[in-house]
Amino acid sequence: MPNYKTVLLDLDGTLVDSAPGIVSTIAFTLEQMGVPVPTMMDLLRWIGPPLPESFHTFAGLDKKATAEALVIYRARYLDVGVYDAKLFDGVAKLLMTLRDAGTHLAIATSKPTTPATVMIEHFTLTDYFDVIACAADDESRGAKEDVIEDALGGLRDLGRDTSSIVMIGDRIHDVEGARAHGIDTILVAWGNGSQAEWDQAHQVIHTPRQLHQALGLPGGNR
User: Fold this and answer.
1) For the chain, how are helix, strand and coil distributed in percent, rounded to 5?
2) Measured over all CA atoms, what is the biggest interatomic distance in the chain, rounded to whole angstroms?
3) Cα–Cα distance measured from residue 218 to residue 23, given in angstroms and rounded to the nearest whole number
4) Contact 201, 186 (CB under 8 A)
5) CA 15 to mean position of chain CA atoms
6) How far apart are CA 35 and CA 23, in angstroms?
7) In terms of Cα–Cα distance, which of 185, 183, 188 is closest to 211?
8) Residue 222: pLDDT band by 50, 70, 90 thresholds?
9) Within 10 A of 42 (CB to CB), how many other CB atoms are there?
10) Which residues does residue 112 pair with via DSSP β-bridges, in sequence order?
11) Is 100 annotated as catalytic?
């Protein structure tokens, strides 16, 4: 029997390696704004939090400049960046195994609805999920706590069991958002998190095989 009846999954850094497309689009946006572009390594820190928060925190943009940056970013990302991504190894098998075990699945991502939907459809993942909860396209309700609330509401509306549930992600925002709802978290080490973030999770997983085991599932390639 699986250890959890319902699993919430982050998207960027957990299911999909979307870092190349996100980082290149952020760099393009900052160049267009006339703002110094950090190193590619520094830009990885932008992945996970809602994008307006990252533009403010890491680039020091005020509200007006952040709004301008988001317009540039969205247009470029939908044209180019969203397709510069790939599924992490073992993700397809994980989703198939969870589905076959009767586990209820939901996406809970701070990525806005349109690019998230494009990405999920691009990788033909839609049919695995009972609910897909995202930030709004205007970046509202992008905090992970809010996104998880939307996912839980959608699952309950469908009559899905939310009494035995776990959040799987890669950043501290996944931990904090899940904690606000009393939900355990598993962070995957193949994403964009750090040791300090992993220390806050209930479990840290380094391979898809370990994730199968943590969820009480058979299989896993490595």
Assistant:
1) 50, 15, 35
2) 55
3) 35
4) yes
5) 8
6) 15
7) 188
8) very low
9) 11
10) 135
11) no
State the Cα–Cα distance between residues 95 and 57, nearest whole angstrom.
Answer: 34
Written as six digits, the tokens of 83 are: 């397709």
Instruction: Tell me the C-alpha distance between 73 and 87, whole Å.
Output: 22
Average pLDDT over residues 165-186: 97
Whether the CB-CB separation of 50 and 143 falls below 8 Å is answered with yes
For residues 171 and 45, give the distance between their C-alpha atoms in angstroms, rounded to a whole number. 10
104-112 and 6-9 as β-strands: parallel, antiparallel, unpaired?
parallel
Residues 6+ apart with CB under 8 A from 160: 6, 104, 130
Nearest to 5 by CA among 183, 125, 209: 183
The pLDDT of residue 1 is: 60
Q: Where are the alpha helices (DSSP H) in the chain?
A: 19-33, 40-43, 51-59, 63-79, 91-100, 113-122, 144-157, 172-179, 195-198, 208-214
User: Nearest Cα to 168, choosing from 19, 54, 13?
Assistant: 13
Banded pLDDT at 36 (limits 50, 70, 90): very high
Cα–Cα distance measured from residue 24 to residue 19, given in angstroms and rounded to the nearest whole number = 8
Nearest to 18 by CA among 94, 108, 142, 111: 111
Q: Which two tokens stand for residue 210?
A: 């370990």
- E strand residue ranges, 100-214: 104-112, 131-135, 165-169, 184-188, 203-205
179, two tokens = 């904690």
For 78-122, write each residue's pLDDT tens digit.
999 999 999 999 999 999 999 999 999 999 999 999 999 999 999
Place of tokens 């073992």: 90
Residue in the structure block whose two tokens are 């699945």? 105
